[in-house]
Design goal:
Elements (H helix, E strand, L loop, with lengths): L24 E2 L3 E7 L4 E5 L9 E6 L13 E9 L2 E4 L19 E7 L4 E3 L2 E3 L10 E2 L2
Antiparallel strand pairs: 1-10, 2-3, 2-7, 3-6, 4-5, 4-7, 5-6, 8-9
Amino acid sequence: MASVGTVISYPIPPYSNPPIEPQFYNPSRFVISDITLGQTTTVTTTEDMNYVVGQEVRLIIPPSFGCRQLNETTGFVLSIPAQDQVVLDIYSAGGDPFISSSAPTQAQILAIGDINNGVTNSSGRVSNGTFIPGSFIDVS
């Protein structure tokens, strides 16, 4: 029972508005370890990614990593050849090569959305609901 003069009634919850913690949301950002240029762009990261085909991503490439033509570009994931690789629909043939660097700001790939046209299933892409492949999911 609450004491006289208080506005809060019992039980008191342990917290009411926790801060947003980025590690509790998927998909997240990943550090880039290599980029293969060509008709499509293959991005390799330092750890396994959780992106899906159709996921829209943005590349952040600081100047010390070369490959400046890809900085701030966006593209869609076309395929996932390995857990730490994605192939993007970004044409990059003839661009400056990616250079490994120990700069404090790392090259990154970030999820920003997807094409939002339905579930990917055995019938292909079917617009049948509000499920968004690769959308941000609270996993806390």
